[in-house]
TrEMBL record, chain A:
The keyword Transport applies. It is found in: Cell membrane. This is Sugar ABC transporter permease. PANTHER family: BLL4140 PROTEIN. Belongs to the binding-protein-dependent transport system permease family. Residues 68-289 form the ABC transmembrane type-1 domain. Pfam families: BPD_transp_1. The chain crosses the membrane at residues 12-34, 72-94, 106-126, 155-177, 209-229, 268-288. Its main location: membrane. It comes from Blautia celeris. Keywords: Cell membrane, Membrane, Transmembrane, Transmembrane helix, Transport.
From TrEMBL, chain B:
It is found in: Cell membrane. Residues 79-269 form the ABC transmembrane type-1 domain. The chain crosses the membrane at residues 20-41, 83-105, 117-141, 147-169, 190-212, 252-269. It is a multi-pass membrane protein. Keywords: Cell membrane, Membrane, Transmembrane, Transmembrane helix, Transport. CDD domains: TM_PBP2 (cd06261). PANTHER family: ABC TRANSPORTER PERMEASE PROTEIN MG189-RELATED-RELATED (PTHR43744), SN-GLYCEROL-3-PHOSPHATE TRANSPORT SYSTEM PERMEASE PROTEIN UGPE (PTHR43744:SF8). This is Carbohydrate ABC transporter permease. Its main location: membrane. Belongs to the binding-protein-dependent transport system permease family. It holds the Pfam family BPD_transp_1. InterPro entries: MetI-like, MetI-like_sf.
From TrEMBL, chain C:
Residues 1-21 form the signal peptide. Keywords: Signal, Transport. This is Extracellular solute-binding protein. It comes from Blautia celeris. Residues 34-44 have a biased composition (Basic and acidic residues). Pfam families: SBP_bac_1.
Length: 300, 284, 430
């Protein structure tokens, strides 16, 4: 047995299945991106015309770049708000703050409620006609504060972040938490005996030790951020909210692929090319990010 | 024997901070409780009641909407399909991801980084478009409208699990394997008997998240399991949630019904997540 | 290096294996089916076999089940399976399946109301049913939906897909309001409702179709002659009356007739809920929404009317609905055509219209709900062509409807003006 090829037998089963069911479809999407094709009939080879349209078309490219900008804005929020929030939550559960079992369950819970119901609650709270936020404001005499909420470009994005913080943060908290659980308790124990304060233990021991495994959460949150679809779709509709305030690239992809927005019929080829561009963006950002995260990893 | 961590001595200041944080969070979870209790209460309201009285207590308790949702003749079949699919899909996914991640992170070879990125790509294309070729592939191999085919697709979606595992395996000391290898243990034995038990918290967490997303998924089953006999519970129930305005109380009942197994799942797994801690402490 | 080769080799083999296995599997399964079919055919001498049907929404499932039941009473040997593919990518999925030769035998399309069926016809995917199906039941409006280049490719459903103003009868009575007889009365009514502290009309400001289904009835009420002209394209879609109607809506929005902050009404669900919960007094929406409203709140006492013109003329904007087409690649043409003929029968049409709770588009079929009857009475037999369908059918390059789709909401959020919108559309109209 060749010792050098030991990894093959571990990787191969996953590789085969993954390639057949996940990568093949993606290759097909790449292939489609060079065609003008509605899904039926002749596939017209289009060269890079689809990509030229994305970047230069005077109607389409502003829509695309607005959506991309929203994605980037959201990504920044993920890095600066959502991930730290998740990390902090996980830490609090790790140090077993009072009632942590209950809190852990409750923080995770919204993650399992289907997004349709989330949209119902959003309607219930934020709908300007029937939502009770506006009603409440009216009741306490603050009518001038009433707003269109998700229909108001100034509010929509911020509210969405809050909603995601509530609904989507659970899985990240759980992964951070389970990573903490694997940090050797001896180290933590020893640090206490050495008289470290809680703050010191957090910054000097927990953070460095958990960084490598936390890098995976950050990488994936980044990809998810760039692939955001569900919540903006139900909160602002397929059109990306008022004045494109809730428009994200995947929404653009969705309505240009299935919603007949480009030339009156579904345009799978063009939609595929949007996916490909986004794929490239994700690849670039994750690669850079990985390089940065690696630095931290090898430092300790 | 469990070591209680709470026995550690805290300064009074730290204790107060912890209580304050805990109370803030409890208030915060009030949102979730509120949402959940509205869901449960609304599922017990009559149709006219729910519309004019979203938030309040039901005027009259009725199980009608549960009966309507559960009247489906083949409910047990759908439930079985859902369970088989979720269990099979999750097990397959975790197993494949675990092996793959171990192979990538524990052995040195050329193209390692590329492979690591390769397995991440699966998350980068929206499912709405990749489902079209997937439809064709499954049709070709005769597994369309087949639970097993859907299970294969779920099991192959290893991107997230594989990536998390990889990073995690990095943190396990190599010495553990070396000593086992000297004892004459084979590669797979090392993986299953030494590495896997160490990773319990992470494995269980990822399994939980995977299982929940598979259980809740209605989109892929709708496309790939169209035939009535291969429907899943979530898909059948989605018919109500999908026409939400029309079936408001039924939707609420449907949500409660799908929530129950998920909550059971959570408690099943979360005890394992803590268990892993004591399991992991054995090393050394 | 070596592992790379191994991996790529195994990968290639597995891919080939998968596709080969697929071929084998495929031919086997079809053969098996064929044999079974053949045998039963010989025994019965009638129509038999298996049919697969694709429908596009769960809302139609119950009706489809009834149709299949009725069909199977006549043709006991035909097995009918259906799959519901709910959601926006119905057509993409259907195309994918058909393209790969794995399409259903029978599938739903919008007919000529959207470009999809024409596309299918030009790709020879839809079977020409002109001489195979008895179309005697259908009027000109319904037949228009099925017709491409003089041939018929689908069987319509005689549900009248129109738009109507739903109003809360209880609130009307409490305040002594009457259903308006003239357009100016309608406007006055809006003002009164607003003053009484209600939202006059529930409307989603970000959903193109919600906006359209409100816009079209207002347009038809503001200029009857113009709306009539749309049917033979003797007027242009971008003419002044259309712009006037849009400006009227903007004016109403400013006056708060759609509620303050109405741009925050995220979708059609939220729009309907405001009406069913009694917050809004009226809701202008599709006639098919009646089933949803009644189901959502059975206690709601509501009625429906069409907006009258200043001369008191009312009418309905819309057409019958389209139904199924047959896949040219079907292996069971006899059964498929039999099914289509059953769909075209008065029995099946009656079942469909009544189970949908829809407005009937035929004198021979009685609607099953009071509200549906109320809508068709109010419409008084005047049928107008939908403004949006003109965009579909009279665009030079087919892009008019997509321009509308992208830009219609922007008018109301103030991102573009009505003039800009109309200018853009007129550039791509005949």
């Amino acid at each position: 047995m060749n010792k050098r090829h030991k990894q093959v037998k571990f990787i191969l089963p996953g590789f085969i299945f993954y390639t057949c069911f996940i990568i093949l479809p993606i290759i097909y999407v790449f292939y489609l991106s060079f065609f003008q094709w509605s899904g039926l009939g002749e596939m017209k080879f289009n060269g890079i015309q689809n990509f030229v349209t994305i970047f230069t078309d005077e109607r389409f490219s502003p829509v695309f770049f607005n959506a991309l900008w929203n994605n980037i804005k959201y990504l920044l929020c993920v890095w600066l708000i959502i991930t730290p929030f998740q990390y902090l939550m996980a830490y609090l559960f790790f140090i077993k703050i009072p009632a942590y079992k209950y809190l852990k369950f409750m923080i995770f819970m919204p993650y399992v409620i289907s997004t349709t119901i989330i949209s119902f609650f959003a309607t219930l709270i934020f709908n300007p006609n029937i939502g009770f936020l506006n009603k409440f404001l009216e009741a306490v005499g603050l009518e001038h504060l009433q707003g269109a909420w998700f229909g108001d470009p100034n509010w929509a994005f911020k509210l969405m972040i809050l909603l995601i913080l509530w609904q989507g943060a659970g899985s990240g908290v759980m992964i951070f938490y389970s990573n903490f659980m694997d940090i050797s308790k001896d180290v933590m124990e020893a640090s206490r005996i050495d008289g470290c304060t809680e703050w010191q233990r957090f910054t000097r021991i927990l953070v460095p030790l958990s960084l490598p495994s936390c890098a995976s959460v950050i990488t994936m949150s980044t990809i998810w951020a760039l692939a955001l679809f569900d919540l903006p779709f139900i909160l602002g509709g397929a059109k990306g909210g008022v004045s494109g305030s809730l428009d994200f690239v995947n929404l653009v992809f969705y309505r240009y692929t299935f919603g007949s927005a480009l030339n009156g019929k579904s345009e799978i080829g063009f939609g595929a090319s949007i996916c490909v561009v986004m794929f490239a963006v994700m690849l670039i950002i994750t690669t850079i990010q990985n390089k940065v995260l690696k630095k931290f990893e090898y430092d300790n | 024997m469990k070591k209680e961590k709470n026995t550690e001595i805290l300064s009074p200041g730290a204790r107060v901070v912890r209580w304050v944080l805990s109370i803030i969070l409890m208030i915060y979870t009030g949102i979730t409780i509120f949402a959940l209790s509205i869901t449960v209460m609304d599922s017990l309201k009559s149709k006219g009641d729910i519309v004019t009285n979203f938030v309040g207590f039901p005027k009259q308790l009725t199980m009608e909407s549960y009966f309507r949702v559960l009247k489906e003749a083949n409910l047990l079949l759908y439930l079985k399909n859902s369970v088989v699919l979720t269990v099979g899909g999750t097990l397959g996914c975790i197993l494949l991801a675990g092996l793959t991640a171990y192979g990538i992170s524990r052995f040195d070879f050329k193209g390692k980084n590329f492979l690591s990125g390769y397995f991440l790509m699966g998350m980068m294309v929206p499912v709405q478009v990749s489902v079209l070729p997937l439809f064709l592939i499954l049709k070709r191999i005769g597994l369309l409208n087949n639970i097993f085919g859907m299970m294969l697709v779920y099991a192959s979606g290893i991107s997230m699990a594989c990536f998390i595992f990889q990073k995690f395996f990095h943190t396990i000391p190599v010495a553990l394997e070396e000593s086992a290898r000297i004892d004459g243990a084979g590669d797979f034995r090392i993986f299953f008997q030494i590495i896997a038990p160490l990773c319990k918290p992470v494995v269980m967490t990822v399994a939980l998240i995977t299982a929940i997303s598979q259980w809740n998924d209605f989109y892929m089953p709708m496309v790939l399991l169209g035939k009535k006999t291969s429907n899943t519970l979530t898909l059948v129930i989605y018919q109500y949630i999908g026409q939400f305005t029309k079936y408001m109380s039924e939707s609420m009942a449907a949500v409660v019904i799908t929530l129950i197994p998920v909550i059971v799942l959570y408690f099943l797994f979360s005890s394992k997540i803590v268990e892993g801690l004591t399991g992991g402490a054995v090393k050394g | 290096m070596n592992w790379k080769k191994t991996v790529s080799f195994i990968c290639a083999v597995s891919v080939m294996g998968v596709s080969l296995a697929g071929c084998g599997d495929n031919s086997q399964s079809t053969k098996g089916k064929g044999n079974a079919d053949g045998e039963s055919k010989e025994n019965d001498g009638g129509v038999s076999g298996t049919l697969t049907i694709w429908e596009h929404g769960y809302g139609f499932e119950a009706s489809l089940q009834q149709i299949i039941e009725g069909f199977q009473k006549k043709y006991q040997d035909v097995e009918v399976e259906y799959e519901i593919k709910d959601g926006d990518n119905y057509y993409s999925l259907l195309s994918t399946a058909i393209q790969s030769g794995e399409g259903p035998d029978i599938f739903w399309t919008n007919g000529t109301a959207t470009a999809n069926m024409k596309d299918y016809v030009s790709n020879e995917v839809c079977m020409d049913l002109t001489d195979k199906v008895d179309y005697s039941l259908f009027g000109e409006d319904a037949m228009k939906l099925t017709e491409v280049d003089g041939k018929n490719y689908s069987v319509p459903w005689l549900t009248m897909d129109t738009r109507a103003v739903y109003y809360n009868k209880d609130i009307f009575e409490e305040n002594g309001w009457e259903v308006p007889e003239k357009f100016s009365e309608f406007e006055e009514l809006l003002e009164k409702i607003k003053k009484a502290g209600y939202t006059p009309i529930s409307l989603s400001g970000v959903n193109v179709y919600s906006l359209l289904f409100t816009f079209e009835p207002i347009l038809s009420a503001m200029d009857v002659e113009y709306t009539k002209g749309l049917s033979d394209y003797s007027v242009k879609a971008t003419d002044k009356p259309a712009a006037d109607a849009l400006n009227k809506m903007l004016e109403w929005a400013d006056k708060g007739y759609f509620g303050d902050n109405w741009l925050g009404v995220a979708d059609n669900n939220a729009q309907t809920l405001a009406f069913t919960s009694g917050e809004a007094v009226m809701d202008i929406a599709g006639s098919w929404e009646a089933a949803t409203i009644s189901e959502n709140n059975p206690d709601l006492n509501y009625g429906a009317f069409e907006i009258p013109s200043e001369e008191g003329i009312r009418g309905m904007v819309g057409t019958p609905a389209n139904g199924f087409s047959v896949n040219t690649a079907t292996e069971n043409e006899a059964a498929a055509v039999a099914f289509m003929n059953y769909c075209a029968s008065l029995d099946a049409q009656t079942v469909w219209v009544q189970s949908q709770g829809a407005v009937s588009a035929s004198d021979e079929i009685e609607a099953s709900t009071e509200i549906a009857k109320e809508i068709s009475e109010s419409g008084a037999g005047n049928i107008y062509t939908s403004w949006q369908s003109v965009l579909v059918n009279h665009s030079t390059d087919g892009t008019a409807v997509s321009l509308w789709d992208e830009d219609f909401t922007k008018i109301f959020s103030g991102d573009i003006t009505v003039e800009e919108f109309m200018d853009n559309i007129s550039k791509v109209m005949q």
